[in-house]
Amino acid sequence: MNNRIKEARNSEIPPFYIEYHQKISKYIEDTISIAQAAKKEGLDISEKVESQIGYDLPDRIAKIHDIDISDRLRTLLPKLGKEQTALKIAEEIVLGRYGGETIEEKLNNAIRVGLSVVTEGVTVAPLQGIYDVKIKSNADRSQYLSVSFAGPIRSAGGTEAALTMLIADHVRKIIGLDKYIPNSYDDEISRYVEELRIYEREVGNFQFKVSDDDVISCISSLPVEIDGIDTDPVEVVGHRNLQRISTNRVRGGALRVMNDGLIGRSRKLLKIVETLKIEGWDWLKNLEGAIQTPEDDTISHRMTEVITGRPVLSMQKKIGGFRLRYGRSCNTGFSTIGIHPTIPILLNYAIAVGTQIKIDAPGKASTIALVDSIEPPIVKLHDGSVMKIESINQAKTMANKITKILYLGDILISYGDFLENNSQLLPASYVEEIWALELKSKLLNTDLNSKIFDSKRLIELTEHPLEKKPSVIEAFKISQFFDIPFYPGFLFYWTALTLNEFIILITKLLENREIVNNTDENKYFINSLELKIIFEKLGIIHSLCLDDSKIRIDDPNHLYILTLLITRCMEYETKLNKLFLKSDDFTNDDANHVNVKTHILDSISELLDVNIKEKFSSSIAVRVGRPEKAADRKMKPPVHVLFPIGTNGGPTRDILKAMQKPLYVEIANRFCNNCKSPTISVSCQECHSSTPIHTMCSTCKYEVNNQEQNGPCPMCGNRLKTHSPTNYPLKIAIEKAKKFLDIQPIEPLKGVKSLMGKNRCAEPLEKGILRQKHNLFTFKDGTIRFDATNEPLTHFKPKWIKTNITRLRELGYVKDHLGKDLESPEQLVELFMLQSIF
Questions:
Q1: Exposure string over 199-217, b if 16+ CB within 10 A, otherwise e
Q2: CA–CA separation, 692 vs 46, rounded Å?
Q3: CA-based nearest residue to 145, from 222, 217, 93
Q4: Is the CB of residue 333 less than 8 Å from the CB of residue 646?
Q5: Which helix H or strand E contains 717, and what residues bound it?
């Protein structure tokens, strides 16, 4: 690791960044050293710390597979990228440069390491998703490669799972194996078709719906066999007992690689094939695949899979739902979208940060983050008022008074998510960031010494479009002078209106013409059902007054625009029908719906003498997929220590109760030959002699040596085991643990009824007592876990994490993202990433 830090010093990384990493790294190393020293005492079931630290991707992959390839990966990755590196390192492994006794072992290692490279070593797919790799024979006796998948291949993702087959084909060619020939013995192609449909009907849906023709074409063309173990207790009906398929049950892992990987991601996979110049995969062009568009049957199917109790929040092409806004915040991107922080409150916390949602575009699912700089929701209250909910306190105050959410506000989605999912870009609504860019473009070609505008003010508007907003009068002047569209913060939802509603609006505005000459502070519109509905559709902030006979516009900016609109309508009054209100040319079909929207926008633009853009261009369909559930990972019921007590502890599995009776439990065959007593640790706690696990016959108790462990008992032919029923002195062990720790455990000290591991290794009782003291519980693998929701974060403010400035400075956070000294909890700070150094 020191070499990596030296390399970092020679790079352009700031010194305070390196200091931060040195502190964190030293803390980690010191902690591991303490743990390793404790392990060497021999009081636990192993003598080394199981968790390993991977300082970068190559180091992580090397340790996962226990193959010394880290240096080679560090050389390849910067030059070749992930996909090509995966092929290259797989090639070198299969050629025997990194060990392996048999061809199948080399193939197995090569494919697993290749998958680790493309998944960046952060999923279980390479270890548990690939069940086996074998060399099999076709009917003509030619040998081919078969890859068997299990359920956890799902964690790899569709594209990466499909890349496994590319890697397998590459190493197949390297060692000279022939292609897989389907239907050599049985109708295996039809088996895949039947198996896929039964899985969809009886087990669950995949990411994509694919056609039978694509399945037939895919299996017919694959040079490597997709096989798998059974994952669900559902059997095929027609194509059973096939020679080369070992089970009649559905093989979920294999089906997922085929459906969601090879076929569902065929277009993306084809680009990779063409980039890497891999031969023999041109057949991908012939697949229909599953390119996602908003009109796709796949998308419609996904949004109809509504689960009871998980609400639908927004629908595609529906005004009022989530408005698509392109961009990203410091906590969005990588399939995490942003919504306004008031939305969870208004929806009675049906969603929260980390909630998984199903969306129609750009991908199949996402998680939620909160972003306060985007468009907030507009709601209607019980008294008929319409208001914008802009703050959390306001949302909490008004939540019980809301009768309807008129507009949910923005959903912030990054362009990268569309690119990653190969999804078509949807029309973009007109937002402040685009307006600022258009203004900036005009400023570059305009003399800023103009007496009409303050140049500093204009620059401020372009550099801080979300924080600094023009007044409504400024907005009109800027749009007219620079010939750019009207400021989006003052736009109404004009395209939510039908042509008939637009005509009614103009008529009603003219009926309220006295507002123009009214010098009173409060100006009222005559209330009518039609005008009220139109104002709600437009998103105009208003309330009812004078016994609901009048409508008061509560937003002065909105009132200014409406007053100006009335004035302009009065000027055009004799020409309105001819210019703006013609309805004869419009019908109800989709094409003319677009024409109506264009007509309304053009009409308002001419009336207001500014270019009015569409405020709501695209909506995103959203339904709740899985609630956020970041929490401690516990067994049910929670357990302090993995120590078996059978039924002695009663329903609470209390070890302190169990020690009152003789304990006879199944544990590992460890005992001290010197002290003649059973033990659970790698060395005896009395004499410190080694206590390895013994393998012995479960019937005649004959003990075998290491060479005989894999076969049956040489004496009686029965099963050999590494564990057996033992009369364990639990009370003595508890008393020793209490004395050793100087801690008095309290009831209940929870254990387990029995152990399930291969060797039935029990944990030391001291661990349970310490966990109970600190209110901690263990999981079934002996770890203390917290399942966190995976979301991106690039920056933070000290107030968000409730940490004082002094502590952050001690950790190395001395500058904000602008390079200024960190002094205030309101400053935005770049989050350091350990991975960037190592």
A1: beeeeeebbbbbeeebbeb
A2: 10
A3: 222
A4: no
A5: none
Q: In this model, does residue 8 exceed pLDDT 50?
A: no
HSE, side-chain direction, 13 A CA sphere, residue 388 = 18
| Contact predicate 325/411, CB 8 Å | yes
Distant-in-sequence, close-in-space partners of 231: CB < 8 Å, separation ≥ 6 = 150, 151, 249, 250, 251, 252, 253
Show Cβ contacts of residue 428 under 8 Å, excluding neighbours closer than 6 positions: 324, 326, 434, 617, 618
Cα(252)–Cα(205) distance, integer angstroms: 11
User: Which tokens go with 209?
Assistant: 């719906």
Of 733, 713, 619, give the one whose Cα is nearest residue 667. 733
Tell me the per-residue pLDDT of 224-234, one tens digit each, with 9 for 90 and over. 999 999 999 99
- CB 76, CB 89: distance < 8 Å: yes
Residue 82: Cβ within 10 Å count: 16
Place of tokens 């203004």: 439
pLDDT in tens, 539-576: 999 999 989 999 999 999 999 999 999 999 998 877 77
* Tens-digit pLDDT profile for residues 58-71: 998 998 898 999 99
- Alpha-carbon separation of residue 262 from 191, 208, 256, 281, 789 (angstroms): 17, 11, 9, 11, 28
In degrees rounded to 5, what are phi and psi of residue 776?
-115, 155
How do the residues of the chain divide into helix, strand and coil, expressed in percent and rounded to 5? 40, 15, 45
- DSSP symbol at 195: H
Question: In whole angstroms, what is the distance from residue 303 CA to residue 800 CA?
Answer: 34
